[in-house]
Amino acid sequence: MEHGDHREGEVSVTLPSAFDASLVFIGRIRTPFATLADCPKNPREGQVEATVEIDPRYIAGLEGIERFSHLILLYWMDAARRDLIRQTPRHLDAPRGVFALRSPLRPNPVSLAVVELIRVEGTRLTVKGIDCRDGTPLIDIKPYFASTDSVPGARRG
Ligand SMILES: C[S@@+](CC[C@H](N)C(=O)[O-])C[C@H]1O[C@@H](n2cnc3c(N)ncnc32)[C@H](O)[C@@H]1O
After folding, report:
1. CATH number of the domain that 138 lies in?
2. Is the minimum distance from the CB of 102 to ligand 1 under 6 angstroms?
3. What is the chain's percent helix, strand, coil content, to nearest 5?
4. Cα separation of 103 and 89, whole Å?
């Protein structure tokens, strides 16, 4: 969707003129999905191998990562518009606030996926379970802890 376009019920805001924080991208996620249209709708549907390429300056930060079967990736949806705070996704019949959606279109287009770690080769991590376009910038990696990150029986509206 182009910036400025709206579906029925959608609301956009004027974003602040200055940012509150700055980020550094620590790498890129290389996926088989060349365009947004090629991407799966969510990480669970993206059960193909992808490569996380970490900037070599951060290699010491990967020490011990192979201990974990799953990782949380936080990445930056760089092609997403940021002003649409109420949205009408195609799969819903009514508009919903951005903070009640997993949409990539948000004031800070941060996305997350719990991926399976297949192997580590230097600064390249092979993972499975990702939904982003090839080249999407990576913000952070954290190990996934089933003991604290999983909420069995959580309610989904
Ligand atoms: C619905 S979002 C789910 C986001 C994420 N997994 C989450 O829940 O935090 C996934 C969609 O984001 C879109 N997308 C993928 N890579 C993107 C990028 N680099 N910039 C903007 N949108 C992207 C694709 O249309 C993909 O199907």
Report:
1. 2.40.30.70
2. yes
3. 15, 30, 55
4. 8
Domains contained in the chain, number: 1
Nearest-CA residue for ligand 1 atom 19 is: 77
Residue nearest to atom 1 of ligand 1 (CA): 103
Q: Is the CB of 105 under 6 A from ligand 1?
A: no
At 39, list the tokens. Answer: 């991407």
Q: What is the pLDDT of residues 94-125, one digit of tens each?
A: 999 999 999 999 999 999 999 999 999 999 99
32: in domain = yes
Range of the structural domain that residue 48 is part of: 23-146
CA of 57 to the centre of ligand 1 (A): 27
Q: Whose CA is nearest to atom 8 of ligand 1?
A: 102
pTM above 0.85, yes or no: yes
State the Cα–Cα distance between residues 67 and 89, nearest whole angstrom.
38
